[in-house]
Design brief:
Length: 430
């Protein structure tokens, strides 16, 4: 699923456009020590193991790139800190064809509209500040090996109290039904509590982008928090509903959880037969080797807040490119089972909080730039699949409508697994 830069992809993979080769890296975090795990055939979920003190959610080194205009002193909204700023974008807004201006204004969110010959990628950029929300979770990402056929631990990390996003993305590479649950171990002397704030699940399927969109819509929905208590020295399933998702050959199991933990716990993403008692057998599982094309790891600051900075709003189209490293720096972290540095090309699992409204109401859309793309957006209390009627938008001459953006609007946008990047998010001011 993770981004690749060349060649055809396997069925469960998305690939970013070749622009990812020129990624702008905002920070270089230190390598974290192996979290009580052994490489190769060693056990990675031993209740008696000791874990490294260096953590993925420890204070990160500065990520701010130098602002384009240092004298402007750009700042972030309250509750966030500056990563970078782009305060000057040259060129007049692109004048859209009248037919496109009319159709994007009339379209419902999620509807595909023709850009009527407009070269959207030639529109000037939108001046923005890029910020890290104070409550941004660390992303614990499991997508390698993407097609496991054997029993084992896919990824594991020991995490202190804090906020995390757990991301499961694995297809069954074997002939018999298989599942990919998350098992939590409390190695302390007191019970640990995990609160699930958000959860996204979907039935296993070979339609990978559709699965990704369903998971995102479920995750974006409102639900009551769920609390799980882990007794000291014991392992429990994070969610029996994930354990109940059994994949046939080549079917994808995908899930996203936002959680808060109140004590140090070990989380293990495992591959076991559909009939296995995962909480019981995890102690005896060995670490499965990564495959060369996908990532796993722990990545700090998996939410980004992007806010428009200028109040001047001339008619026409401006754009914001996502997924190529120019604005949303590639997430960097570590594979806690090996200590190897990791880059999450495509930033799958990143939530974009977009505060782009300005004095005049504008119409927003998404235009794929690297190939077939799908995702989901939440605005005004409702969530929408992007695109709504088909699995993905495969053309670069059409756009997916996001609706009207006023001065108070904030969008929450995520890319579905299996999609291609980058994409342009554009604003058209009538």
């Amino acid at each position: 699923m993770c981004a690749s830069t060349e060649g055809p992809e396997g069925p469960a993979r998305g690939r970013a456009a070749k622009a990812v080769l020129a990624l702008l890296l905002f920070f270089a975090p230190p390598l974290l020590a192996c979290s009580g795990s052994e490489t190769g055939g060693g056990r990675v979920d031993d209740a008696g193991s000791s874990d490294a003190a260096a953590r993925a959610d420890a204070p990160a080194p500065a990520r701010d790139a130098a602002p384009d205009d240092a004298d402007a002193g750009p700042s972030c909204p309250a509750g966030s800190t500056l990563r970078s700023a782009r305060t000057s974008c040259t060129g007049a807004p692109l004048v859209p064809p009248p037919a496109f201006a009319s159709s994007i204004a009339a379209a419902q969110p999620g509807e595909i509209v023709s850009m009527a010959g407009m070269k959207e990628s030639s529109a000037p950029c939108l001046p923005v500040v890029v910020c890290t929300p104070d409550d941004a979770p660390a992303l614990i990402f499991s997508d390698s090996p993407e097609l496991p056929s054997a029993d084992g631990v896919l990824y594991a990390d020991t995490i202190p109290k804090g906020r995390y996003r757990l991301y499961v993305y694995h297809a069954n590479g074997g002939a018999l039904p298989r599942k990919f649950p998350i098992v939590v171990l409390d190695q302390g002397a007191s019970p640990a509590k995990i609160t699930i704030l958000r959860r996204g699940l979907a039935a296993p399927s070979k339609q990978y982008v559709s699965v990704g969109k369903t998971v995102l819509l479920d995750w974006l929905g409102d639900r009551a928090p769920i609390e799980i208590v882990v007794p000291p020295g014991e392992r429990v399933l994070l969610d029996p509903a994930l354990d109940a998702l059994h994949a046939e050959k080549d079917e994808l199991v995908h899930a996203i959880y936002d959680v808060v933990v109140d004590a140090t716990v070990k989380v293990s993403f495992v591959s076991v037969p559909a009939t296995a008692d995962a909480a019981t057998v995890t102690a005896g599982l060995s670490l499965l080797a990564r495959d060369p094309d996908h990532q796993r790891g722990t990545f700090p600051a998996a939410d980004v807040l992007i806010a428009a900075t200028d109040d001047a709003q001339a008619p026409g189209v401006r754009r914001l490119r996502l997924g190529d490293g120019s604005i949303d720096a590639t997430l960097e972290g570590v594979d806690a089972t090996t200590g190897e540095a990791q880059k999450l090309l495509g930033n799958y699992g990143m939530q974009y909080r977009l505060a782009l409204g300005r004095p005049k109401t504008a119409h927003a859309g998404v235009s794929p730039r690297g190939g077939a793309w799908g995702g989901a957006v939440r605005a005004g209390g409702s969530s929408t699949a992007l695109p709504a009627a088909v699995q993905a938008l495969e053309t670069t001459t059409d756009a997916i409508a996001l609706g009207a953006i006023d001065a108070k609007a904030e969008l929450r946008l995520l890319t579905a697994g299996g999609s291609n990047l980058p994409v342009d998010l554009f604003l058209l001011t009538p």
